[in-house]
Write a structure and sequence with these properties.
There is one protein chain. This protein is α/β, with parallel strands linked by helices and about 800 residues long. It folds into five domains: about 5-105 and about 185-240 and about 280-440, TIM Barrel (Alpha-Beta Barrel); about 110-180, no CATH class; about 445-505 and about 510-545, 3-Layer(aba) Sandwich (Rossmann fold), CATH 3.40.50; about 560-625, Immunoglobulin-like (Sandwich); about 630-809, Galactose-binding domain-like (Jelly Rolls, Sandwich). It contains 16 helices and 42 strands. The protein has an eight-stranded parallel barrel, surrounded by seven helices. A six-stranded antiparallel sheet has the order 18-23-24-27-25-26, with helices on one face. A six-stranded antiparallel sheet has the order 30-29-32-40-37-38, with no helix packed on it. The mean pLDDT is about 95. This is Alpha-L-rhamnosidase-like protein.
Length: about 800
């Protein structure tokens, strides 16, 4: 906890641990020391806080195969260089995802329960047990009376000396044979030397083997590190482990083998069995993967950070066995993975919750603008995140042809972007917000109950990823529930059957339980305690809005609010998530803190421009909103210079309208002279608000690819100089800068250096396509570049508006 004065004092220059980091992809690996040093220095210069190194598929001939001595020496060199620069260095405990590799034989590989379903006649059958694939293990066989799909009950069939002995019967029957089969899934996007099976996340022996073969050598080479990392769980179809039968009996108190067929066949008790089976999978994942890696990392004094969702069916409370909970996904009015992580972090007392941010930002690579990055970051903050791990920074040789190397599906967020000169201001603002959102404690008056039992039971109901508990739960909770809460200006945590043991029912004003939810007895008793303490249990979501407490700030459409409580006051993060301006009004003065400048002022109302955010705290002062008037439009004689080529130009000026500039990525300098008055007021340059665009204006962009829905007045960022004094950068609404310190009465030289994206150059980069093809030819097809054919769709580069000069009292 802290006071307002404490937080205000540090807001302008917060500590470095709140700086955004970047996932740093090493392709191949094909890296060298000089380029490692150059890129780490570039990260530090941009205001980033560190790198999370990740090892993925090759883009060129491999120089240091994964796990080799050369590879480990380069990891150590990178870590030491980061330390000298004051950067945090995190390491992913494997290549690609999920954990696995050549050390994972069939005894440690992810497994799936495979069913062979046959209709037979009345005669007896002897069926030899044959391993169709390496690692196949027979589990059990069952026979039921009736034609295919008709039997209501089955009995286990005896097995002797490797033969399933189906006895004779008096009618057509159905035989079910259960086999434990290696899923066959290999590590996705693996580096050379890291190919192999994905490991069994339910087996402690498999986890220990991965630690021995991969994690221990990596950590030893990389120390000191900020954390060791595990990406999201994508062990598709993995629902079995060799010890399942004994583990189930020990944990659930009854025999699974005799009823195993009920996972496939509907019976009177099959629903509860599927719930118990799913719960057992979750517990095995926690005990034999999460706890094993957390304990090992703790033995080295290193935090274990994980995106604990997906397959295996991690629960929200599984995060309690991590040191740092991490999510991804940016829908603040919904339930993205970030909310899964931030709820656990809040409930289990983890002060920092991170997010993989910009995963698919404005696809394809190099199309993302600083405004896109800001807008998506705000969505993560609104979902409870307070540390950003950018996705990401592709290692790329500086002397390579074309643009170099990029990750197959993500933003390429490094110093190859022409707009990079503005990155320092962007990352500085995000650092301020990350830090302030760690102060005090979150105020989330609403809880949403996770219907885990129903998700476990739904394994047969046609869900695309039935073992992905998070995704099934998200479909079971109506979308209107989080929307109603957030639109009311309030916030929420998810809560599950494990979390109720640490949450006082007296601290739950409102909890939403989706209609028809299956509730374990302990949860029913806890909900009764919530009611007894005066809380409201909402089971009819149509009445949710009437059951919510009043919001501390008057709700405004598209404006998200995060409420945190300090020692002596309430603090609010507010963010406009729309392309239109929104105004908030307050019954008493509020102090507004700017994340871009660190400046503070008192106000009774405040306008948030498109994709703009602010920090608000109660103020003792009076309203200090200044009045503003137009001085002039800067519509005189302009010139533009691309390098040494200088020519007159009329504004607005869009580069793509010139056929010679359609593939140009870089900077251009606009220059003119402007007459300014003698005044004691502030003088501002204003480029205008930008123009909203329709959500479907770029139909190829997938729904999970964030983009700011605005055509800006400058494409896409600009540095502004008045009389050769740098006045700042423009890349986000309100597109205004203070010129006062540089201004003089009379004639002034105005220079605006505009930077676009590297997407224009990407569209003409045949080298990148050739590199991908050559990699596939030499190492097999490990990736497909996403959407690069759309690199130049809907681009707007240049100075797209006539600047205005404003006088502000």
């Amino acid at each position: 906890m802290a006071t307002v004065d404490d937080v205000r004092r540090q807001f302008r220059n917060p500590p470095p641990e709140a700086r955004p980091m970047m996932r740093w992809w090493w392709f191949g690996p094909s890296v060298d020391r000089d380029e490692i040093d150059r890129e780490l220095n570039a990260m530090a210069a941009a205001g980033l806080g560190g790198a999370e190194v990740a090892f993925v598929y090759p883009m060129a001939p491999v120089t240091a195969p994964f796990g080799s001595l050369e590879f480990l020496e380069l990891v150590g060199h990178a870590s030491r260089t980061a330390q000298t620069l004051g950067l945090r260095f995190d390491v992913t405990l494997g290549s690609g995802w999920s954990y696995g590799g050549p050390h994972v034989g069939t005894e440690y590989a992810a497994r799936q329960l495979h069913w062979d379903r046959r209709e037979i006649g009345a005669a007896a059958y002897d069926v030899p047990i044959v391993a169709a694939w390496p690692g196949d293990e027979f589990v059990a066989a069952y026979v039921g009376d009736g034609s295919a799909g008709a039997p209501s009950s089955y009995v286990e069939v005896p097995v002797r000396e490797g033969v399933i002995q189906v006895p004779a019967g008096g009618q057509p029957r159905e035989v079910l044979i259960a086999t434990s089969r290696v899923t066959g899934q290999n590590v996705k996007r693996a580096a050379v030397g890291a190919e192999g099976h994905t490991l069994d996340h339910y087996s402690a022996a498999a986890a220990q083997e991965h630690i021995r073969a991969v994690a221990e050598p990596l950590l030893k080479a990389a120390m000191p590190v900020g954390s060791v990392f595990c990406d999201s769980l994508e062990v598709y179809g993995g629902d079995w482990t060799p010890a399942m039968l004994s583990e189930f009996a020990g944990r659930r108190g009854y025999d699974l083998r005799s009823r195993l067929y009920e996972l496939l066949v509907e019976t009177e008790g099959s629903r509860q069995l599927r719930i118990d089976f799913g719960r057992t999978l979750s517990e095995l994942y926690e005990d034999n993967f999460l706890k094993v890696f957390q304990s090992w990392a703790a033995g080295h004094g290193v935090p274990f950070r994980i995106q604990s969702y997906g397959e295996p069916p991690a629960t929200m409370s599984s995060f309690r066995f991590a040191d740092i909970s991490e999510g991804e996904g940016w829908a603040w009015r919904g339930i993205p993975e970030t909310r899964w992580a931030s709820s656990a972090a809040n409930i289990y007392g983890q002060p920092v919750v991170s997010a993989e941010v910009w995963t698919w930002v404005h696809s394809p690579s190099f199309r993302a603008t600083p405004l896109d990055l800001q807008g998506e970051a705000h969505e993560h903050f609104l979902s409870g995140v307070n540390h950003l791990i950018g996705h990401g920074w592709p290692y790329s040789p500086s002397d390579g042809p074309g643009l170099g190397w990029i990750f197959y599906a993500a933003g390429a967020l490094d110093d190859r972007n022409p707009w990079w000169p503005t990155a320092t201001a962007l990352f500085g603002s995000l650092q301020r917000l990350s830090w302030v959102l760690r102060q005090g404690t979150p105020v989330r008056p609403v809880k949403i109950y996770i219907p885990a039992s129903d998700a476990y039971a739904a394994v047969r109901d046609g869900y695309r990823e039935p073992n992905n508990l998070y995704r099934v739960v998200r479909q079971l909770i109506p979308e209107s529930v989080p929307q109603t809460i957030r639109d009311a200006g309030l916030d929420f945590d998810l809560i599950d059957d494990d979390a109720i043991t640490v949450v006082d029912p007296g601290d739950v004003p409102v909890i939403v339980v989706p209609s028809g939810t299956t509730l374990p007895p302990d949860t029913r008793r806890w909900l009764d305690a919530v009611r007894a303490a005066g809380g409201t249990v909402v089971t009819d979501v149509s009445t949710l809005a009437q059951s919510l407490p009043p919001a501390p700030l008057t709700p405004v459409p598209d404006v998200g609010v995060v409420h945190r409580r300090l020692d002596d006051a309430d603090l609010y993060f507010v963010a406009n998530t729309s392309p239109e301006a929104r105004t908030l009004t307050f019954p008493a003065p509020m102090e507004r803190w700017s994340p871009l400048t660190g400046e503070t002022r008192s106000t009774r109302s405040t306008t948030l421009h498109p994709y703009e955010s602010a920090i608000l705290v109660p103020a003792a002062g009076t309203d200090t909103v200044p009045s503003t008037e137009l001085v002039c439009a800067v519509d005189g004689d302009w010139s533009v210079a691309f390098g040494n080529e200088v020519r007159p130009v009329t504004l607005p000026h869009r580069w793509e309208d010139d056929p010679a500039r359609t593939t140009y990525s870089g900077s251009a300098t606009y220059r003119t002279q402007v007459e300014l008055p003698a005044t004691s007021d502030r003088l501002l340059i204003d480029l205008g608000p930008g123009t909203p665009v329709a959500p479907d204006s770029e139909p190829y962009v997938p729904g999970n690819s964030y983009r700011a829905l605005i055509t800006p007045p400058v494409g896409v960022a600009a540095d502004v100089y008045l009389n050769d004094v740098h006045c700042g950068a423009l890349w986000a609404p309100p597109y205004q800068l203070d010129l006062t310190e540089a201004a003089r009465p009379g004639t002034n030289d105005l220079r605006i250096v505009v930077h676009n994206t590297a997407a224009n150059a990407l569209s003409a980069d045949q080298h990148l396509l050739d590199a991908a093809a050559e990699s596939a030819a030499h190492y097999g097809r490990r990736f497909d570049l996403q959407h690069v054919e759309h690199a130049t769709d809907y681009l707007d580069s240049g100075l797209l508006a006539v600047p205005q000069i404003l006088r502000q009292a």
